[in-house]
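Run log, item B.
One chain of 393 residues. Sequence copied directly from the ordering sheet:
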Amino acid sequence: MIPHDETMMLKTPFYSRCLAACEVNMWEDWKGYTTPQAYTSVEQEYFAVRSNTGVFDISPMIKYRFTGPDAGAYLNRLVTRDIRKIGVGRVAYTVWCDNNGQVMDDGTIFHLAENDYRLCAYARCLDWLMWSAEGFDVTIVDETAEVAALAVQGPTSCAIFKNMGFEGIENLKPFGLTRFPFEGSEVMISRTGFTGDLGYEIWVDPSLAETFWDRLFEAGKHREIRPIGGLALDMLRTEAGFVQAGVDFIPAEESIRTGRSRSPFELGLGWLVSFDKPVFNGRKALLKEKKEGSRYAFVYLDVEGNKPAESAFIYDGDKEVGTVTTAAWCPTAKTNVAFAQVDAKYGKPGQELAAEIYYDRELKWTRVMAKCTVIEGAVFNPARKRQTPAADF
């Protein structure tokens, strides 16, 4: 008989290596794939990225490939950013909206070659992509299972790749991509990531996944390379100020109740909206919002004390004005950070508010009204993530 988990959960091409390294047996479901929440301890894995190098299996990330004469024109119609400005060999972060200007999802677009793009996303949306392709000469393929991927993040990541023989990797600019020969094939490396640190993502054929993992960890053994799970990554992306679909906003296609979805402006992502291109999904609604103003603001909060404001209500005096979507004590920044959605007029930097925090100690719940201040951006933004050539650490 086939074991039950074989029929229910998919395994990434790196699963055998993840399983061998996972000491605490903490796993989660990521879009149908079984992936580690943690391998040893969350704190140990967090500091691996901030001090050395951490490796996260991102193979379950949804990946769509767009090819054909109209691939670029189609994507430019689909997303808010001007795709014409993304050259071959470059990557760009963007969002895409429905006709009401509400965010469907966010992700990265890789310009692989002329008329050849890859979109990495949180949500599965192939049906919607195909409907949107009417009138365009474009082929769309879900290649999630055909591409193995790792995020290799941290200050020593570039030095480790140089140890693997990837000559010149230090000259790759942020949001650039390049290719290196590997085992009779090739590996694509992009200078991208979700940690806010110096780091890269690798994209390789699944048949080479285990070999790549072994070579990577052999090259990094003297630099304390370590696999990391989803819990550590969540701490890292919070410190770096990155929003996450399904956590900080509900994708418009998944929202049921009126008013639960958000526009790019309401997520602090208005800089991704290019009104200088003629037409894209949601353009009319977003122009109206820009003129009349947004309902909500997405803010970063510096919270007093060291108790994370998880799922807290935000108050101005006695008035409830918003809710926290993400919260964490950030060890490197030594700051208690929260992301919150608040009524638009409370979103200006310097605004003083209060978070209603509940925490449990030995079955006793305590309520704290913690002062918090709206701050301008991420609390962790090191120069090394942008430095080119990347330095050895």
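Observations after the first pass:
- Confidence is low (pLDDT under 50) at residues 1-5.
- Residues 45 and 259 are 37 Å apart (CA to CA).
Flagged for discussion on Thursday.
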